[in-house]
Amino acid sequence: MTQTETDAALVDRFILAREIAKEAGRAALAFFRDRASLTIDTKLNGQDAVTMADRQVELLLREHIRARFPEDGLLGEEFGVQEGRSDFTWVIDPIDGTSPFIFGLDAWCVSVAVMARELPAAGVIYAPVADELFAARRGEGASLNGMPLRLGSETTVKNGIVGVGASHRIPPRVVSDFVEQLLEMEGMFIRNGSGALMLAYVAAGRLAAYWEPHMNPWDCLAGLLIVEEAGGWIHDPREWPSLAEGGLVLAGAGGTRQDMRGLAGLSERLPA
Description:
By secondary structure, this protein is of the alpha+beta class. It folds into two domains: 3-149, Fructose-1,6-Bisphosphatase, subunit A, domain 1 (Fructose-1,6-Bisphosphatase, Chain A, domain 1, 2-Layer Sandwich), CATH 3.30.540; 161-269, D-Maltodextrin-Binding Protein, domain 2, CATH 3.40.190.80. The protein is 35% helix and 27% strand. The protein has seven helices and 15 strands. An eight-stranded mixed sheet has the order 4-3-5-6-7-8-9-10, with helices on both faces. A five-stranded mixed sheet has the order 12-11-13-15-14, sandwiched between helices. Strands 1-2 form a two-stranded antiparallel ribbon. The longest helix is centred in the N-terminal third of the chain and has 30 residues, at 3-32. The chain is globular and about 50 Å long. Mean pLDDT is 91; it is low at 44-48 and 268-272.
């Protein structure tokens, strides 16, 4: 496939990603408004929940992708990997922020990323309650409901709010140490329960930066690309042990880079 053919193929997938993220979001919103009827199961612990909404919305996404691009690979939170035969792999999270979703909070979203080989090439995050569609295609910028997103360098750790992610995969001390150092730096933090949505908020300039010591790929690949295409910086996911394993997520506006990398223990790797 030539570069021109690859670009055209990606545009087609980006169009579909936006369409199905919104359709999936509408389906999830119907469940959200009737939460009393949801079947809820736990995975590893009581904070790691899954609902029938998660499963049915992921099946909806998979059905649309298979129908349009049957040779593409798929990686989803609820149903795992489906190997493909093309250069593209879809990485999907039907509801990122399941706990807020269950308890009636607005902080949840649908996340859809398209990988071109090992690199996120298109990303869409849709927040149905707010009807906000964050989207990006590599080299073409990022947008919110069709309006361009562009980050400046004036936001810092000290004058903005840092999003912090946590899970029971990480020792509590790792998170508390980060928060303590951030507060000592005169920074402030927030956690809303959806890492994907907080990455989108970084791209929109609502949060200065985001840190989570480990995220799964379906939670963050779309958001990382959107931040990058909005003019922010990210910790490259190609530095993870493997795509499937996930790893450290770090992203922010330009003025946060040095402080955030220092807080994450990466200051010694900054370029001279």
